[in-house]
Amino acid sequence: MSAPLRVVVHAGSLFSRKFKPLSSALSECQALIFYTVQRQRRPQDNRSDIVRCVKSCQPNDIDCILDRVHSISHTVISLPTFREEPLLEEIVFLRTVSPAQTGISDIVFEVLEGNFQDSFDVIKRYENGLIVGVVRQVKPITGPRHIVLKLAMNYVVSGVVSHRNIVNVHIFVSEFWF
């Protein structure tokens, strides 16, 4: 597995020093993500790529500062076609650096989009003192199919979402069961 590619989204361009609106920087990040997903589709490339765009606002950019999304990540996985009901197949682990503690803060995992025929769910688990979100396949999916599962990791403080990270999982389901 290769090391994750970290792409920092300043309130400017990812690839130049000229500042652009945040939406332009995110568009450039999306272009890089498209390239990574297309590269992953090649059969000779059997590694997993992660592209992470991290928000970094200019001090006077109020819209950027108030936007609760702190990062957008894209990852790619491939799955075989399951001919029968999977037994809650765990396919993605959303690891946090937040300690598993009770109190005024919490992390809530949520499926936002792309849950093809309600085939996936996400649960919270505590492992080694940290909070982990586990995405499970709960229904069979027949391929070939490309699904983009959009997930949110909501950081909640005193009952209010303080910020969130978005994770887009590009799932390629093979037409074969092996």
From TrEMBL:
The entry's keywords: Repeat
* Record keyword Repeat present: yes
What InterPro entries would the database entry show?
A: Fibulin_C (IPR055088)
Q: Where is the Fibulin C-terminal Ig-like domain?
A: 70-175
Instruction: Please state what the protein is called.
Output: Fibulin C-terminal Ig-like domain-containing protein
Q: Which organism is it from?
A: Megalops atlanticus (Tarpon)
